[in-house]
Design a protein that fits this description.
- The protein is of the alpha+beta class.
- The protein has 2 domains: 7-98, Phosphorylase Kinase, domain 1, CATH 3.30.200; 102-295, Aminoglycoside phosphotransferase (APH), C-terminal lobe (Aminoglycoside 3'-phosphotransferase, Chain: A, domain 2).
- It is built from 10 helices and 12 strands.
- It has a 5-stranded antiparallel sheet, with helices on both faces. It has a 3-stranded antiparallel sheet with strand order 6-10-11.
- Helix 3 runs parallel beside helix 8 (245-252), helix 4 packs parallel to helix 9 and helix 7 (229-237) crosses helix 9.
- It binds adenosine-5'-diphosphate.
Amino acid sequence: MSTRLPRRIIREVQERLTERGGGAASIAEIHGLGGGCINPAARIVLETGDAFFLKWNEELPSELFLLEAEGLEALRQTAAIRVPTVVGVGDGWLLLEFIDSTPFGPGFGKRLGRALAELHMPGSERYGWTKPNYLGPLPQENLWVEDWAAFWRDHRIHPQLRRAHDGRRISMSEKREIEALLVRVDALLTDGPAGASLLHGDLWSGNVLSSRDGDPVLVDPAVYYGDHEVDLAMAELFGGVPHDFLSAYRERLPLRSGYVEVRRDLYQLYPLLVHVNLFGGGYRAQAMDHVRRLLGKA
Ligand code: ADP
């Protein structure tokens, strides 16, 4: 994929910034940024000094960035945690407020834990979301259901299993083991959540920023309503999120028994299968370790 910023996108972004500012916006600088897992990104600075974060990708489905913008807006409306303001969205691009970030400082984990618990206060009786969206570049099925275990089995694990099998990323015997686990998901999730929480949905450390004031800021969501432990399991999976976030979180929103023993593995299996589908390699062994541990408990 080319990381060159297409002229069409520069023109559309400039138009959007002009519309926003009520006068011609002249771009003074465009700095390419590394770090995005999927999309090229740049820092756009106007002559006024205002800075914006632009990411783009002309090869992904055109609604992807619109859905990301809607997810950011849903998170923003909770007022529980900061997200960048959406400045504009177009065909193949998303323009956001630029977050001047710093490395996580002392106390950041606690602030993150408290804000996340606030975000996760149950807000719906049903699980799912109004429409399908994406986790990174992969489609994520959504609809509204009342049965959380069925949602997790049929709309999270199963589509990734199908994709991994169709793409020959797992063997037939691995597929059978995961199918054996799917039959047991109901039994593993008997202690269901008290209500559905709005989830960030892709909560790894790269999507958590610390503002200059040390406030947590979340980016790149894949939102839906689900068991709040799903975000925690993901945050614990890849490391990098300060470890004290969980104790601060639990002070506000206790975890049900069985999270560490069972559900964390079951919830981590979804991002692991997504990683198998995106990157293959070592993630397959890690995913199968989770499956076998869970089969031993079912
Ligand atoms: P991708 O869709 O490619 O995964 P992200 O949205 O996760 O891209 O952004 C990639 C990186 O850019 C993030 O890990 C973060 O460090 C940085 N970033 C994301 N959004 C902003 C923003 N609004 N302001 C400043 N930096 C950002």
